[in-house]
Amino acid sequence: MTRVHDIYPSDKVSLREVGLRDGLQLVKTFPSTAAKERWVRDEYAAGVRHFEVGSFLPAKTFPQFVDVRDVVATIAALPGAHGVALALNERGVNEALASGVAEIASVVSATEEHSQANANRSRESAIENIKRLCELRDASAHKPLVNAAISMGLGCSIVGAVDPKEVLRLTEKLYEVGVDMVAIADTVGYAGPKQVGELTRGAVKIAGSKPVCVHLHDTRGMGIANASAALDEGARVLDGSLGGLGGCPFAPGATGNVVFEDLVFLCESKGFPTGIDLDRLVAVRAILKSEMPNEALYGGLARAGLPRGTKARAA
Amino acid sequence: MTRVHDIYPSDKVSLREVGLRDGLQLVKTFPSTAAKERWVRDEYAAGVRHFEVGSFLPAKTFPQFVDVRDVVATIAALPGAHGVALALNERGVNEALASGVAEIASVVSATEEHSQANANRSRESAIENIKRLCELRDASAHKPLVNAAISMGLGCSIVGAVDPKEVLRLTEKLYEVGVDMVAIADTVGYAGPKQVGELTRGAVKIAGSKPVCVHLHDTRGMGIANASAALDEGARVLDGSLGGLGGCPFAPGATGNVVFEDLVFLCESKGFPTGIDLDRLVAVRAILKSEMPNEALYGGLARAGLPRGTKARAA
Asked: What sequence ranges are listed for the domain Pyruvate carboxyltransferase (chains A, B) (predicted)?
């Protein structure tokens, strides 16, 4: 049992609430630091243990993440809570390491075309960057986990269909350079459950004993079906955002991440206990509504409540 | 090959647009007859072939279905289009038979409690009623198909969890009394994909060569995931409503049927060709919006459009 398995046990599902990072990526107004801390604390009280908390990106361009260190500290103070922050270059990585965050996330595009257009570098260079991140991690005092997302892994806003063999080749490389986890991302919500299931199966095989994360967007309404397929094929880490907060830069008007609370319901219905109290979780949406009144929130559980006879789940 | 297989071929998926019946069940304002006819014709032009068109219920209580005969006639005039209408008592059945509708739908509740509370009769009496419907069908000139929905088949608004063995027992009885198809209905959207898959597998086994329909509501965001599970287990007839039109009498504020256009995208993504042009289908939502401006419409495809590189599907 290595440290990654303490945080992402292979015999249960870990659900990561990414609203504070991916959810806030495109919003026009954003919550105060105090509201972010209530958001984290209230979700923690509901049973959530994995949080993506923000990005170490230039604060001038992304002012919504200027207080990322405060959110990292809030989570570090909660027993058993685990925080993840995004860092895309060496400055960001050094800042992330200095913040003491428990996990650093990086990204490589699934297609060369998207890599060049979005990050102005090749996929090979992006993987070199992640290798360097792993070396800095190894040389650090607290040695955070490192995860690498393969963005556009199930469809690309530039070239359309993505060859799954390419994604599996990148997956293999990423585990080789030292990441603890690869996250297969359907960044633009192109995939259906068949494709997600097949790619997950391949990635799980490559990952061996290491975890595989599947990061889904609900752009075309397939989010929960895709999550179900990923679970069926052995993914045990799934991302979602409360209320499906967030948008997609490549699909204006589209929804963001798969709805976190519906993901909880899905997992429970499939016999994967999450330890999350759905009523308490849904109540946290009030913070998002009051801090970002113009952002659309989605989700079935919030509208309809739990089915009759469903036992309240222990936090 | 019997007639039911001409209409619901066992080697392909048939998607039924139920917006004109289930979608209109609870709306406050409803479309004009002319708008319903455009709705049908435009969906037909997009490639839709199966329509639930209305109910033979008392027009005083359900004025939205007063023009059901006109919609039946509109569909009968379109080559290869198939119309279904609901009829719950002998008067309704006789009116449905007289209308020449191609299929008559009836209902039995999965639980005794719901049957008594909702229809004021036992499930046994409901099945007797359906047996009588089949006899009237056999004695009729044009012999429409008969389908029987098992409402609350995956969870009951009165008792909560439903014993799948009871649903399978009812399924068996319904095929015995002569129905052409049983529709397993998650009327209140309680189920997840595991439960839907398991019940579908059992029903498909009982049905033998006859089709099984799965009728899902998206109340808790599981609609598409549940449809995917039903397809995986052999259901080849699925219901949905354009824009997810409709509500649920037992869950105020909840969404209605699973979103038809997202269902089309799901089927195509799983390799089940539907013959439906998604762009043309999504355009039909304009009729619903202009006729029922206060009704919420849902769906990912309508927000985001087709993924880049997706070929337009031939109607």
From this structure: 13-282
Residues A59-77: tens digit of each pLDDT: 899 999 999 999 999 999 9
Instruction: Characterize B43-67 residue by residue with b for buried, 16 or more Cβ atoms within 10 angstroms of its Cβ, and e for exposed.
Output: bbebbbbbbbbbbbbeeeebebbeb
Annotated active-site residue in A134, A156, A213, A248: A248
- Extents of the domains making up chain A: 11-304
**Cα distances (angstroms) measured from residue B1 to each of B6, B137, B226:** 7, 19, 29
Q: Kindly report, residue by residue over A276-315, the tens digit of the pLDDT.
A: 999 999 999 999 999 999 998 999 999 999 998 876 443 3
The domain covering B13-301 belongs, at the CATH homologous superfamily level, to: Aldolase class I (3.20.20.70)
* Helix (H/G/I), strand (E/B), else coil: B164: helix
Please state the separation of Cα A136 from the chain's center in Å. 22
Q: Cβ contacts (< 8 Å) between A222 and chain B: which residues? A: 224, 262, 265-266, 269, 300
Write out the two tokens for B110. Answer: 């999965």
Tell which CATH classification among 3.20.20.70, 3.40.50.720, 3.30.2130.10, 3.30.499.10 matches the domain A11-304: 3.20.20.70
Report H helices in chain A: 3-7, 33-46, 68-76, 90-99, 112-119, 123-139, 164-176, 193-207, 223-232, 260-269, 278-283, 285-291, 300-304
Contact A269 B219 (CB under 8 A): no
